[in-house]
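Practice set, problem 2.
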Amino acid sequence: MPIQDSPVWQITDEALAKLDSHLAVPTPERGAALLVAHHTRLVVGVLPDPVPGQAVSYWHSDQLNEALSRRLITDPAVRYGGTVHSHPSGMAWPSQPDHIAFRNAMTQIPSLREALFPIVVQNRAETLRMPEHYGSEHLVSLDHGTIAPYSGHPTPNGGMHVEPCRLQVMPLRSSIASALAALRDLDTIVRAGESKTIKGPNGGRIWVPFTVGDKEVHLVFPQEYPESPPWVLMDARPSIPAWDLTQPPEDRLEKVIRQVAHRDTDLRVGLEARLAHHLPARAPWKITIVGNGSVGSNIAEMLVRSGVKDLTLVDPDHVAPENLSRTVYDANQIGQPKVAALKARLSGIAPDVTISTYDDAINAVPRGVWPDADLVVMATDDTAAEAWLSHILYAAGVPQVSAKMFAKADAGEIALVVPDRGTACLRCATGGTGGSTRGHSVDYGSGRLVGELALGPDIVATCAQATKVVLATLSRDSDGPLADWINPLLEQHRTLHLGSTVDSWGVFEHVAQPPMDGPFASLWVRTDSRTDCNICGETPEVPAEPLKPIEVPDDLGPVLDALIIPCGLATARLIEMDVRDRLDLLEGQIDPH
């Protein structure tokens, strides 16, 4: 396997220095156990073996096994990740006894599906002659020799596959030492304490305490450091500093600690400055997102990256493999409840975000949750439950943004409902189903739409538009570009947005003129309330209790399929309002009334 396709392991410079002093300096063969942060390939600790190995082989002594067992019990943030040992005579590749020892390690620890088995030699990398099938691209220089990393995993026939792998060094202690040296001009004394590994929502992180004068500060380094910044924990409040990738890591870190010492700079100043133009008067908005799948998860992430700090997530489902092509989830989260997985994802982006979760169906969520929101995002495949919830929200005066995809994501629909501006309710705006059943299969036992294949970028395009509508709606009573953008639409009751990702989709074939009728055509449609509507009409009614799904015999499916309206009712009715001269092009499929 080419080295560029091999697994990538990481090691802190602190752990690498320990390997160098323990293995590259003394006479071979010696060894050590590697401690890896949970859910990562980051080596954060080394347990040296006090007993040397044999002349031609090495494996853990009883003393090392006992020390390793104690460490794993007392430190749940780390796991055993493999074994490193030294070789004589510049042999920087595993011997036959090594392969047997590696295989035994993998079989004795069933949970160990992948491990790191490096070889250390006292020779310099440029003097080594490596076997052709291993090559030399994976070699990493030490102060007193060379380390050659190898990754091992079991094969289906009970054997062991070993291959060279890449080993990246995290410059943790070196950048801390350089930063502290540059801070000697401060009147305040800055010291760094011993690091420890902690569990994070998406993997282990390294926690380093700092004393800045009389202030205690903690920096939490992610495994992506130095590409990603450490979190700063000060006064029990986490923040994410500005992080200029054009500067060396030690310079970035020095700037962060200097800001902490002066305490006169908002560590989120970079984020706030970028958002200030669009959101000059952001309130502590509370947003509820109903449905955390392809649409809801992407909108949630965009909102958090836009500075929203209070979210409620509602979804009864779990992350499945098919979700990975168009959501924000990763493979490690398969099988987890979507609300828990999304909370972990968002917390990793903004540690100070407040997130409440309900892994329940819409009608099982406590009813008091809904009016507590400043806005609710509708992103579910359960159109029946969503229609009931929309009535609850309209009666409570809570704005709503519904985002839906048409079949295969050929088009998307965003419906905006703002009761205090007198807009149409969701049912009047979209004809009850939002047009979202067009081309979709429906599970008539539950009322939910059956998922279809769709290109992720097409979905994300509608999610980005919906996110801007959410932020603009919440900014409607403020000054700024978003308020200037949304208020004319609200005044004209143009609260239904249709967007296509293909050429001449649906209504765009009839109402859009070149050059607007190609892919990514967009249309804001006027919507009005029906006078007899029991939600937004002249005599609104109190929302009813949720209805249970109607069980329909399988043999009625084809009959019901034939009744699905091929074009959104609201779309046809609204086009009749705005472009009467084009109504004949709809081929009489819809009664506009």
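Problem 2, part (b): a different protein.
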Amino acid sequence: MINRRSLPERVRQVLIAGLVTLVLSAAMILDPLDQFGWLIQSNLATKAPSGEIVYVGVDQDIEDPDQPEYRRNLARLVTRLDQAGAEAVYLNLLFEQASDDPGADRTLNKALKDFGDNAYITVRKGPDFSGDTITFRSTGAITEGLQQVAAEDRYSYLGITWSMPFASSSQGKVLPALAAAMAGTEGELGRTFPVSYIFDFTKIPSFRSTGLLEKSEGEMRGAFSGKTVLIGGSWGADDQITKVPGKQDVASSFTFIAAAETLKADLSNNFGPWTGFVLTFFLLLLLVSVRLDPKDRHIGYGVLMVLLVGLFTFATHAGSRVSVSTSVFVLLIYAGTRLRVKWQRKYALEDQLTKLPTFRALECDLTEMESHFPLVVAEIHGFQAVLQALPPARHKDYILRLVERLSLGEEGKIIYANDGRHFAWLSSDTEVESIREHLEGLRSLFSQPLLLDGTKLDVGVTFGVEISENPSASVRIATAMNAVEKTSEAHEFVIFDGTETTPDDLWDLSLRARIDSALENGEIFVVYQPQMSIADGRLVGLEALVRWNDPVKGLISPAYFVEQCEKAGRMDHLTRHVLDKAVEDAAYLASIGVDIRMSVNISATLLNGDGVIAMAQEAVAKHNVAANRICLELTETARIPNLDRTSLLLERLSSLGFRLSLDDFGVGEANIENLYRLPFDEMKIDKLFTRDLTNQKNRAILQSLVTLGRDACIDVVAEGIEDRKTLEFLNEIGCPVGQGYYLSYPLPLQKIVEYHAFAQTKSQKHS
């Protein structure tokens, strides 16, 4: 296969043109084009025939069996030709039926035999109605004892015979072909030669049979002495009418004369399609492989065309037939490809509505520039809404008015357009503060409504600026576009980005695509953080936590890859995986006597449909676990899409027996309102409130939260227990359950089983 990246564009296009041409030529689709080329050759050159072959056209319907006198007249003509000293006579007439007067056939047969060894009668071969080749023979009464030659018609797409065989088979015998016999040449069966039509047909000696019977012996000797005579139908009288270049309907016998003259003049050289293809293809490949500027390359194309036309003309006048189809098609396909590319580039480099240069043109300009200027991309906010409100005829005016404003302040600035709402330019300022000051001025200008057709249009604009030294034009544009996408009209209207793309950046960009395979390969797995009774240290619950151990990067931060799952739309897939594994392990723990509750995090982003309900039901049903043993912890409550709808959804989960927990209580939207409005069974106090208990205020807030839960009959779990003093204080204020690194790090399931077995053994010893 052709490696597109490793080949220059023009070389790749020549290779494609060559491949397509080869396929078309092999399928014989280009044959008609070759024949048109041969027609041109036939009309460009004219050559006088040898004059050694004389044609005699029989005016009468001599093949008619009801007219025996016509055959007798033909016998007299053969006798007169013999008397005139003709060297050979070929009878290219078909007598399929014997004459009503057998004596007429015998007379003709005798006249031919008397002529000697150089008298021949033809066996006709040609296509029938279905295209199959059939043989037509004259009656044996005439052909008995005579030599025979084959007259085989091979019509082409244009109805012209372009080639003839040297020999032909008939009834198991090999017969010389009529043209080859007249030229005095021989060839193997199956071998063919081209027929040249450059001969002047008006100079081929031709006579009518009726006139010859009346000529004197002197006239006959002068016309036929030492000549080869072909007797056939007269002009337009032969039932085998054919076409030759430059003439329409002529007797087919003239095709055989042209073929014989071709052999006599040694014009059987034939440059087939592969010769022209190889010559044209490699010359074109050589031309595009050399580094040239566009003007010189176009001159090279012209020289190549002149060379090919010159070779074609030279071959024509030398009498050699040239197949031009492959040469023409290689050039046409290549030229068509180049024109298509130029059209695409023109279309890509220029916005068709405003005629502004596009970001593709910007990329080309950046690639060719030697100096490095900061790249600014502006985003017009509300652009599509304005276009929707304006009539289509005014879209161009609106965009150009935006460009006018963006162009202010920097002389000679070129504005590049991309999808209408993004515009870019190269800043003449190189200092960040100078660029910011200029953009602040533009932003102030855009704060004034734009007047169009008497209507004031509000326009918001933000800017992304790329200020790195990256040599890649495409990376610079992508960096600026990424920067402008992070901007905000209200908070940060301009963002500068001077960072370089690193392998870590590329890895991050491809992370989302690897999430599914990581799940399948077991790279994403579940660990469990124990939840302990603060009063007596018993294991009362587990929180399922997801981890990713990448073969390349090692352990990846859960917060990071969970965020990527949300962006990639794979959060439900990840949650289903964790929930199914956690419920499966809860079933296993129950089977070995570990009677604890299993908690699983559910992102608030999944509460926009009934998918969570189905997911939870499927998990407990699959592993035969009671729903009340599973606690669903609601995280990221700030992203609850609809509080009323979420309330109904959680009510359904609660009615099915699942326990519900409010994670990170006391921080952000995990507040008292949500605790009040949503049917939670548990609240988990955020580690913010257990982090520092050295002052009275913090201890009082933590104590009030524990009291709130107890008084509201809601289970309380304290997170972030990192030391003994925190544990002792929580025990002192009556917090029932806690978790944190002081109690235990997240553990795999087997470690949980071992811990529980150890705790039981220790408890039995104390008892």
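Answer key, part (b): Confidence is low (pLDDT under 50) at residues 1-6. The chain has four domains: 4-43+271-347, 48-264, 357-501, 523-766.
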